[in-house]
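cron nightly-structures :: item 1 of 1
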Amino acid sequence: MTRPPLPVPAEHIPPGTAAWRTPDAQRWLAAVPGRWAHPLWALLALVASLVWDVVAAPVAPCTSADPCGTDWLGLGTAIVLVLTLYWVWRQPRLALAGLAATLAGFAVEGGFTAALGEPSALAFLMAAAFTTAGLIHRLAVVGRQRARALEAAGPVAQPLPAAARTFRRGRLSFVLAALLLAVAGFGCWQVQQVVDAYEERAAGAAHLSGRVTALERDGDVDILKVEADGRTHRFETAYPEDFPVDSRVDVVVDGDWAALVAEPFDSFGWELLVLVGSVAGLAFLANGVDGRTRSKRLRLEPQPVLRVLVREGHDDGRTWVFAADDPEGLRPILHFHSLYAFEDEDEDEDADEDADEDEDGGDAGDGPAAVVELGKVMEIVNGEDPPPPLREAVLYGVPFVGAEVAFVARDGADDAEVSVECSVTAVKPAVPGLVERGPRRRERASSRRPCDEIAVGMTPTAAPRVWTAHGFSRAVGFSLLLVQGGGMWAALDDGLSWSWLWLAVGLPWLVTAVATALTWRIAADRDGLWVTGAWRVRRVPWNVITSVRHSDDGIRVDRAKDSPVELTPTGWAWLERRLGREPRAVRAAEELRALLLHPELRPLEEAPTGRQGMPVGPPLVALSVLWGVAVLLLL
């Protein structure tokens, strides 16, 4: 029996507070960014185009006239570029500024002109345009979400509870930013020390011209041998291709100390420290400023209020928000991490300055808050905490992607007191993402659609019903076929070796998987099923079938006395769900189960030979043999 949500005492519900009901919540969810604007796609496009552009772009050689020293401008550009990639995921507004700065540097270096003749530069511009469109779209939907949330809340606005007004955000982010930027500053100082030491030594050294006599490899280090003034000097070089044997180079010599003028010093390690420290420090600084700004805006003025239901996630401690008319908590609207807020006894002393803060910049509060949070964490780690109850709550603030909110709710079933919790991570909509979380994931993992519900959508037919491989399944098959072909090439290219064992062990499985994914087929007629796998077509009468189910991206038909008949792989259910589509193989298993339990829905005719399917395993073996022969002839 489902327990009713824990109610909020009436005195903690502001007069006129509207309930956020399912129709309004669904309209709010409909305003989330489109799937095409997910930051992952923009990041993949940007990274791929940048890698291509870096690999394709010619590298200026190190010369005496233009030595390879410290490139502060290039280091600054790299910092902005890496920050931009991070901000594409977390901070759309800052990402737009970072992209603008990156494109400005691209234009100064003549990148727009080069894009007309360089495919890699053109690919970067296209990736930047796609990213910009996605960022603008993500920012535009924020306005629509705000408008729909305000429409649902109505004209009522209330100041935050006293505890929420003293809640502070961003301290830990500022502390970490200061430490990391100090590390970056130390790295800059060390780089300058290296430069100054070289220039001071080189100023009093002899400047000579030498000849490259040899290039050696000592472990992972390239060693350049240069003969100058009757002596042979050894120099480590990062660019051996710039110094061919018998070429002339300039060196500076001061006793036992010598250096190449073209590569005077190596400060790569310190420059890498500057890059990492600057990127991480500026990222924490931006997060702290953003969290502090949003939190301050939430406290300074009355906020819209909504009656909702909340539940703390049992697996990751997230706070999930549901519509007020969803008493079973089946359809989450949004989620965020939150921490308890406690009213300070003396606000003038700002006693919460020593409060702890979570990884995203939220404060855990002083003693009582820390104890509560530590107890919750230990219970979750030990697996001793009971499933969190669904609670009525009053939500303060306008919910939208990236917003800060607070809510008032009862602590638990055994506690009549109410508590105030504030968000410490930005609000996110409860829509399918790359990693599914929350109630929908648990519901899908623990249950399947009722058979009667499937049967209602099916109508009796006289002709046989057929389920066959579809686009996703064939994509899996072609991917495995490429793996098979590449693996055969690699194994045969090694000659007679242990890799041939891979052919003997792995090739049969690959051929079976490829043939199944490309052409699996199930035909249901009046007497049973025709199941077409990689090697044969099996007849399975209705009276011996005990169950039909989808598991591990395959369809399994269990029989009373014989071993089950399995088809795998039949697609990639996880990816199909992420793209908002119902997995075809899952649907096939559900409809087959409905036919098994509802005989009146079974076809009235017997499947002809043409509809029973044909296995493609044998032809695929012949094709694999031909491919192997071709590889041997080409090698």
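cron nightly-structures :: done
The two ends are 70 Å apart (CA to CA).
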